[in-house]
Amino acid sequence: MTTEEILLCLLRNEICGKELLADFDLTDKIIDLYRLSKRHDIAHLIGDALFRNELLPENKVGEAFKEQMMLAVLRVEQQTAELKRISAALEDAKIPYIPLKGAVIRGLYPKAWMRTSCDIDILVKKEDIKKATHSLIEIGFETDGKENFHDIHFYNGNIHLELHFSICENDKRLDAVLSKVWDHAEKVGDYEYAELPEYFVFHHIAHMAYHFVGGGCGIRPFIDLWILKQRGFYQEEKLLPLLEKSNLVKFYQSVCKLTGVWMNSEKHDDLTLQTERYILSGGVYGTSGNANAAGAAKSKGKRKYLLKIAFPPYKIMCIIYPSLKKRKILLPFYYIHRIFAKLFGKDRQKVKAKIDNTMSQSQEDILSVGRLLEELELK
After folding, report:
1. Is the Cα torsion angle 76, 81, 87, 93 positive or negative in sign?
2. At what angle do helices 197-213 and 249-264 cross, to 10 degrees?
3. At residue 247, what are phi and psi to the nearest 5 degrees?
4. What is the pLDDT of residues 121-164, one digit of tens each?
5. 1 and 25 in contact (C-beta within 8 Å)?
6. Residues 6+ apart with CB under 8 A from 159
7. What distance separates the 2 farthest-apart alpha carbons in the chain?
């Protein structure tokens, strides 16, 4: 068995309760197994499966798996406690809010610690951002106050909070539905709201698609979707109209099919095999190679892709340079400033690596990724 096959076998055992295959063999694979599971942020799940099946080795790798299991429990306990404090602060300030992503789906897993996340995501309305920022600072959070495309980052010790004022992804197709999040939310407390089940799943799929095109989305969202389906969290007939509006039906169906392969040992087809290779070759957020190949495929060329990065649209430039708002006539000068800053500033090594990696992508890899995106209707 390959390392990937061993990982998926252990994952089925941990999440679905499936027996390990008769030819299951960890010989000479344990280090690669740890590295692969760590890249996808599921080392705690694989470690627990090994522990329950008395396969966890008594060596440094075994200790590393145990450490990931303990960290997962600690991380979730800390985030759960902080989410209660944050919610209380927003309630006291009478600010409507929506907990997002892992904070919601964690409760559907057999045990909460099984669903880790690197941060807490909460959505408030744009007009409440200043008041929410003040409330969070009052309970000990720190921030530079910088508005990114759809959020502001806050920190309290090792807790990272992304305070969203939007869940849009800078993709017209996705944002046509994502921009209407408050129209698809229901009140569940005095000021707490929740995305309606089908909209929550739409948001999940849209976020997967966004990261997929950006280089990969990792294994974890597939596990999430399997859990959501198994728990009867949503009705597919209500989800499909939302997916149709963003042209995500084919992607959703393909993701469901690959989830069936991974969790229910169903048979592969050509598309699930291609998708599996693309996902497993990366990690939680894919790889720079996948991202650059996908970018070149979408832009119909490596140089065109680099030009798109060098000259982002006005809307994005206004986020990078807030002083540019209402001064569109100055956009060319800001482009010149950005290019010089990138080529000769502190990020110059990253920029060089990006250019080198993009130009090193083979035409075969670009065409292969391009065909995959076309098949999934993501191009």
Report:
1. negative
2. 90
3. 55, 45
4. 999 999 999 999 999 999 999 998 888 888 999 999 999 999 99
5. yes
6. 78, 79, 82, 119, 120
7. 68
Cα–Cα distance measured from residue 44 to residue 331, given in angstroms and rounded to the nearest whole number: 48
pLDDT for 154-188, tens place per residue?
999 999 999 999 999 988 999 999 999 999 999 99
Judge contact between 149 and 100, C-beta under 8 A. Answer: no
Residue 187 burial (C-beta neighbours within 10 Å; 0-12, 13-18, 19+):
exposed
Residue 86 one-letter amino acid: I
Q: Say if residues 227 and 108 touch (Cβ distance below 8 Å).
A: yes
Which residue type is seen at 359?
M
The token pair that represents 208 in the structure block: 């997967």
Q: Can you list the pairs that 145-153 forms with residues at least 24 positions away whose Cβ atoms lie under 8 Å?
A: 147/319, 147/322, 148/319, 149/316, 149/319, 151/121
